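Example for tutorial group B:
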């Protein structure tokens, strides 16, 4: 029994050694983040480390050398312990900062907000918002009720940063005085005009809802349409004036006493005009 146990133990050690050698041959190293990397941050060797990874399961876009990642800019936030992938990095030659996050053909534009305009701080980087403007419609021809108007002018606009923070992993509301939005050149022109002619408001929308709202805007006339459409009080019945007339006819007539006219008259001469004044 002792001899059988020794032989079985030796065989187990031999098979385990061969298995470990086979695993070592099928394992490579890829670049991982050693610290948390914020969006727009530039990678340095101190922020990276090499980690063993099975060769058959290496994710697409992984790097096998720290030098190939040195100086690259992250266009999304990377958490410590995550692999560095090409899809998470800005193109070669991109400088660090928020400009690395702006998509090709887009622009970053900042608007001033407060706790109400900024949806109480819930408009965070990575969220989508609609932009509504409240202004005066000077071209309205339907009266004073239609001069004031609120209208959504831009829809599904990406929030790049709030104040000077662009981290998209933080979900805690932050009340700030400025929000940076990603817009097209045409949208940038409309946004600049909208903030100069009226008051802006940000409207937080669902992240996965791509539908656009086709609205005509709200005016005082549409807001108070129930009051405008309310019928006027009914007029008094036609018989009412007749009753009043009958009452007036039945009432006794009071005739004022007429004083007798005086027979004393005086002739008054004013220049070349003569007149008689009787008393």
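The residue assignment follows.
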């Amino acid at each position: 029994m002792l001899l059988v146990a020794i032989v079985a133990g030796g065989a187990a050690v031999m098979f385990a050694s061969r298995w470990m050698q086979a695993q070592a041959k099928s394992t490579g190293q890829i670049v991982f983040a050693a610290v948390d990397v914020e969006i727009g941050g530039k990678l340095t060797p101190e922020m990276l480390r090499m980690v063993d990874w099975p060769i058959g399961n290496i994710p697409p876009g992984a790097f096998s050398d720290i030098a190939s990642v040195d100086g690259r800019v992250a266009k999304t936030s990377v958490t410590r312990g995550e692999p560095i992938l090409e899809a998470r990095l800005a193109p070669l030659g991109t400088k660090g900062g928020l400009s690395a996050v702006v998509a090709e053909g887009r622009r970053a534009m900042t608007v001033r907000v407060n706790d109400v305009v900024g949806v109480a701080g819930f408009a965070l980087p990575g969220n989508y918002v609609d932009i509504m403007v409240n202004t005066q419609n000077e071209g309205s021809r339907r009266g004073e009720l239609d001069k004031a108007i609120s209208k959504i002018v831009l829809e599904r606009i990406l929030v790049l940063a709030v104040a000077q923070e662009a981290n998209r992993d933080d979900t805690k509301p932050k009340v700030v005085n400025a929000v940076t939005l990603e817009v097209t050149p045409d949208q940038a022109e409309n946004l600049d005009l909208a903030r100069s002619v009226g008051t802006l408001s940000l409207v937080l929308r669902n992240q996965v809802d791509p539908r656009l709202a086709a609205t005509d805007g709200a005016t005082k006339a549409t807001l108070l349409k129930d009051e405008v459409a309310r019928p006027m009080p009914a007029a008094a019945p036609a018989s009412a004036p007749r009753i009043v007339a009958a009452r007036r006819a039945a009432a006794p007539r009071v005739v004022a006493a007429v004083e007798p006219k005086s027979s004393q008259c005086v002739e008054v001469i004013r220049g070349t005009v003569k007149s008689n004044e009787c008393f």
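Helices lie at 2-25, 185-197, 220-223, 225-229, 239-250. Compare this with the pattern of hydrophobic and polar residues in the output above.
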